Amino acid sequence: MWSLIAYNNQKIPLYQKIMLLIEEQIKIGNLPVGSPIPSERKLAELLEVNRSTVTRAFEELSDRGIIIRKKGSGSYVNTEKWGLQTQPIINWQPLFGVNTAIEKSPYQRKIDALKKSGKMQTYLDLSNGDLPTDLVPALKTPELSWGELIQKENEMTTNQLGILSLRQSVQRHLAKTYQMKVPLEEILITSGTQQGLFLIAQGLLKPGDTIGVEAPSYFYSLPLFQATGVRIVPLPIDKEGVMMGPLAEACLNYSIKMIFINPIFQNPTGSIMSFERKAALLEFCQLRRIPIVEDDVYGGLNFSTDEVTPLKKMDQKNQVIYLGSLSKYVGQHLRIGWMVAPQNIVTQLAHIRHQIDSGLSVLPQILADTFLVKDFVSQQARLKKELSKRAEYAEDWLTERFSDKVQFDEVKGGYHLYARFPELDVKAFNKLLDDLLDENIIVGEGQFFGDTVPGMRISFGHAANKESMAYFSLKS
């Protein structure tokens, strides 16, 4: 285990070889999250090197958040994986020559192996956060002459924000869904929220900047922040959203440039930020001049609550960048979303996009425009009804399968149910995940979203009916 032989041919300093060795032991599972690392003196003896060389390696790993050094106690693998990504994945000066991508857990590697094996069709995949194929609508292609299509293309050349008719449809959609009035010049059409986030990271942040992200959150699993060298600080959440005490403490310890939140049917927890917490967050960030990015892709899918007011609607100081998308209504094959932000911001980001990829294709925008005008309301009603039923199937299954071991809140909308197992240690929870896999059931591991408490995300849209849930859970 503790040998540098594998790195003999690498022309890098000795302390960097020790760093590679420790990271490799973490990667393959010999050093689990939270486990102790041999002391500097002991490791120096094992590797037959000077202690000062090991000390330097430990200092570098600590600075990058890979390990935690506790005075008088020793060094441990960081339990809060948020600190792991402190350098860009794309690095033209490879100081360490290591792969800094987020390391996958043993469970996640098993899922990857399943996908490669071609056996996924025999599994109930409750980790899949996409719209199930049986709920994807049949999109209608409008009749357009070649001249009309050319006219739309010319429109995109002169106006990089997106075709006018789609921006108008988005404007009406926001007014009808949330009673939110948005100036047309503040709407930028994107190819989904991922592109919106990418443009923000490229245009409004720089390498080394620190951002605050909900913990747990799907934002944590996105490689785009790591690719731009942005540091991530976790902001703990409760049932009402981002907790203000830890947020204030984080702002004292770090120079936070921007906060990213998913306040309505949050991914993965499904929680809804309360009105009072939204107001407090806006006030707090206004005083400190911290912009907020709000990802709202689930807000229109409420089952049993009216508490779906976007933060952007409450924003009186233009401090919120709002992101929306159609993917949760029509599936991933139509990647169209929108950003709502101050006019100078959307203009700047549209220009950046134009420099990178020459803008958006017109045809997907035309399809999205037609869907919003003609089919959105009926598809929204269909999804609310069907997803609500499937959420009940998942709730019943969790209760019957795990009894008093599991804790979760009633689903009020969106795509996801989050179940926690606070009484299980890491070993017991890993066994639980493996048991489910033996029963041909795949779930979203909480660790993937940066959670430090044993938990799983259930994307209940794929729980098609009670019979399928019962079949898979009893299959073993």
TrEMBL record:
Pfam families: Aminotran_1_2 (PF00155), GntR (PF00392). Gene3D superfamilies: Type I PLP-dependent aspartate aminotransferase-like (Major domain) (3.40.640.10), Winged helix-like DNA-binding domain superfamily/Winged helix DNA-binding domain (1.10.10.10). Keywords: Aminotransferase, DNA-binding, Pyridoxal phosphate, Transcription, Transcription regulation, Transferase. Residues 12-80 form the HTH gntR-type domain. One of its GO terms (molecular function) is pyridoxal phosphate binding. SMART domains: HTH_GNTR. PANTHER family: HTH-TYPE TRANSCRIPTIONAL REGULATORY PROTEIN GABR (PTHR46577), TRANSCRIPTIONAL REGULATORY PROTEIN (PTHR46577:SF2). In the C-terminal section; belongs to the class-I pyridoxal-phosphate-dependent aminotransferase family. This is PLP-dependent aminotransferase family protein. It comes from Carnobacterium divergens. The lineage of its organism: Bacteria, Bacillati, Bacillota, Bacilli, Lactobacillales.
